[in-house]
Amino acid sequence: MSADKTTTGLTVEKGHVCHAELNAVLNKNSTDVKDCTVYVALFPCNECAKVLIQSRIKEVVYYSDKYHHKVEFVASRRMLDMAGIKHRQYRPKQSQIVIDFTLIDKMNNGIDTSIEEPKVVQDGQVTSEVDAK
Ligand SMILES: [Zn+2]
């Protein structure tokens, strides 16, 4: 859904979007998520923190905390701390992963047998080669 404005000023984004944390807990592929670790792109908001606490998540690993000073996220951090839920920022060793689909097509079709091995690219520079077997 797009974030269209209605005549009441309510945006679709504000009223209808389910945050990733709630979606993950509701659509888990297990009986419960007790003692599990959740990996999220953004530090959870206060509403998601409540869901994570109630679902007995053990740890939150997030990539970005760009809303660190907003009240919702200060409250979230406080609630997670009070509930004893660990939270830490994920620091990837590599800044990007490149998937070359043309290489995959060539390998599947068996057209080119002299294909270069896949490589790990970091900041536009090849850092290592990957064993594709
Ligand atoms: Zn949220």
Can you offer a commentary on this structure?
The chain has helices spanning 12-16, 20-26, 46-54, 71-82, 101-109; strands at 37-42, 59-64, 86-89, 119-122, 125-129. The protein is α/β, with parallel strands linked by helices and 133 residues long. It has a domain at 20-89: Cytidine Deaminase, domain 2, CATH 3.40.140. A three-stranded parallel beta sheet has the order 1-2-3. Helix 2 packs parallel to helix 3 (46-54) and helix 3 (46-54) packs parallel to helix 4. It binds zinc ion (ZN). Residues 19, 21, 44-45, 47-48 line the site of zinc ion.
- End-to-end span in angstroms? 40 Å
CATH level 4 superfamily of the domain at 20-89:
Cytidine Deaminase, domain 2
Give a list of the ligands: zinc ion
> How many extended strands?
5
Structure annotation, total helices: 5
How are strands sequenced across the largest beta sheet? 1-2-3
Query: What is the mean pLDDT?
Result: 84
Main beta-sheet annotation: 3 strands, parallel
Helix fraction bin: 25-40%
Question: Which consecutive residue ranges, at least 5 long each, have pLDDT under 50?
Answer: none
**Element pattern in H and E:** HHEHEHEHEE
Content-based structural category: alpha/beta
Shape annotation: elongated
Strand residue percentage:
15-25%
Just name the CATH architecture of the domain at 20-89: 3-Layer(aba) Sandwich
Top CATH class of the domain at 20-89: Alpha Beta
Radius of gyration: 21 Å
**Would you tell me which CATH topology of the domain at 20-89 applies?**
Cytidine Deaminase, domain 2
Oligomer type: single chain
